[in-house]
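Researcher: Structure for this, please.
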Amino acid sequence: MLKQARDGSMPRTQRGEPKEAKGRCPADKAFPRLSPLTERDEIASAMFKFNRITPRTAAGLIAELEGESQNFDAVGIAVAFEENTRFIFADDANRFEKLGAALAQGGQAVGLIGVKQQGEIVSVSSRPFREYKGEQWVREYLANLSDSCGQKLSKGLGTKPISQLLN
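Model: Predicted structure, token format:
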């Protein structure tokens, strides 16, 4: 470490340049330091950008729904609200409008619920959209939703179309 001269200045070479301490920055170079508040804000901002879930467009979600429709007897987008869930099914003629309205009302399209029926046996499966793949709450939400859909279907199967039983 270089010691300051009696007048408070840093030692200089014969050419008048500041002396550098080994392994340290030049003595007269000022590197800006962020205040603790600014530093915290920068970290929070970076974390927000990293963790932000950027939803796809309704058209992108509908395209994924339609791509899965060939694998199920009924498949729908699960749109989560605080108090309930709405399903937008692939065979719904107004799926674009219904999905747009649900998203505009604050719903989050979190994943797909698919139903296969083989005789009396009904299987319900779910998967989160890629935006929510790592979110534990979404996996739990869809698992609970699959269970409740299975219960509804077992009670009303054959009385109405699957999409009407679940909405």
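Researcher: Any notable elements?
Model: The two ends are 73 Å apart (CA to CA). Helices lie at 36-51, 58-68, 95-104, 136-156, 162-166.
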